[in-house]
Amino acid sequence: MVSESEPVRVPGITRGILVTGGAGFLGSHLCDRLIAGGHEVLCADNLHTGRKGNVAHLLPHPRFEFLRHDVTFPLYVEVDSIYNLACPASPVHYQHDPVQTTKTSVHGAINMLGLAKRLGARIFQASTSEVYGDPDCKRQAEDYLGRVNPIGPRACYDEGKRCAETLFFDYHRQHGLEIKVARLFNTYGPRMHPADGRVVSNFIVQALTGQPLTLYGDGLQTRSFCYVDDMIEGCLLLMASDAALTGPVNLGNPQECSMLELAVLVRELTGTKGPLSFKPLPTDDPRQRCPDIRVAREQLDWAPATPLAAGLEKTIVYFDQLLSAHGEGADGD
Ligand code: NAD
Ligand code: UDP
């Protein structure tokens, strides 16, 4: 359905939901939930870090459509609402082609906001805790302005996402667009790419293949890990909330843990006895990260329900099956 002309609106006909980045880790779970909820879903993805395999089970579904598209180029489709998730999320992936990462965040936001403006569609932005940079406060609330290095190796992602937030709020103030900006904290679960370098996938794959678990730095830096189903629930609730709630809203697990604690837990759950291997800490790696989720609790009645050990167990089962099916070098395609 590609057309540059003004759409013909038929009252009462729903035109569906666009999910950019829908073949990625989070996007594919979101597509699942939207299809299960009875919606028409258009999944647009350039398969840069996502995989068609993540949505292969949806391809035959009559209410699901996959479109190979790069969001740095304009998109002319007719939908009722948009979830903008397109962007590589793992540091290894987003630093691989940093210029493209910034373009995806910024040009992608401009293109999707332009589409939303033309259609009068509500639009959701998957922003990130990275907008807080390397925070100097224990818990990060939405009014914390952040401590981001604008010229470091993480800046393409952090500043790209910050600029995307700026664009969302300017389109809201200037054009009255209905926006929903969520700041997602670290999320894990089935369909993470086994080779994307994120800590949860690294530790589990290493443990299952008998390799040492790689800890960067002293391993005392913290993150807060949210199970994917909880995260998707939060995103759906925010999208469905009253128009006055624009965000930003933090979505994440307020249970903080160090990377050393995570490594110990993954070893326990997989039963591996392999050693830990300490590696240099990457530049600008945040020392701590923990969401203040009071806004989400109060405005959305949302909080994560899955304890870390329970979510890790499900993720371990996923990677175990993936590795058995594809061998140790599995890329999950
Ligand atoms: P992912 O890499 O699995 O998914 C991103 C998807 O976007 C992939 O399918 C990729 O192919 C697609 N994509 C990338 N560039 C594109 C482009 N130019 N045009 C079209 N598609 C493109 O990552 P994810 O973990 O699923 O993250 C999804 C979104 O959530 C991202 O915007 C990310 O910044 C945000 N987020 C994720 C986390 C997390 O922990 N997973 C945390 C904070 C924010
Ligand atoms: N990390 C680690 N070992 C790994 C991969 C990552 O110790 O094999 C650390 C990394 O340095 C960071 C934390 O785990 O402190 C989370 O890294 P990830 O890439 O998952 O996400 P982000 O840094 O974007 O939060």
Number of separate strands? 13
As for the CATH topology, it is: Rossmann fold
Tell me the span between the first and last alpha carbons: 28 Å
Query: Helix amount, in percent?
Result: 25-40%
Can you describe what's shown?
This protein is of the alpha/beta class. The protein has one domain: Rossmann fold, CATH 3.40.50.720. Helix content is 37%, strand content 16%. It has 9 helices and 13 strands. The chain has helices at 25-36, 91-96, 98-119, 155-175, 199-208, 228-240, 259-270, 294-300, 308-326, and strands spanning 17-20, 41-45, 64-68, 81-84, 122-128, 179-184, 187-188, 213-216, 222-224, 226-227, 249-251, 256-258, 276-279. A 7-stranded parallel β-sheet has the order 3-2-1-4-5-6-11, sandwiched between helices. Strands 7-10 form a two-stranded parallel sheet. The site of uridine-5'-diphosphate (UDP) has 14 residues, from helix 5 and strand 8.
Which descriptors apply to this entry?
single chain, 7-stranded parallel beta sheet, two-stranded parallel sheet, binds nicotinamide-adenine-dinucleotide, alpha/beta, binds uridine-5'-diphosphate, Rossmann fold, 333 residues
How are the elements arranged and paired?
Elements: E1 17-20, H1 25-36, E2 41-45, E3 64-68, E4 81-84, H2 91-96, H3 98-119, E5 122-128, H4 155-175, E6 179-184, E7 187-188, H5 199-208, E8 213-216, E9 222-224, E10 226-227, H6 228-240, E11 249-251, E12 256-258, H7 259-270, E13 276-279, H8 294-300, H9 308-326
Parallel strand pairs: 1-2, 1-4, 2-3, 4-5, 5-6, 6-11, 7-10, 8-13
Antiparallel strand pairs: 9-12
The protein binds nicotinamide-adenine-dinucleotide and uridine-5'-diphosphate (UDP).
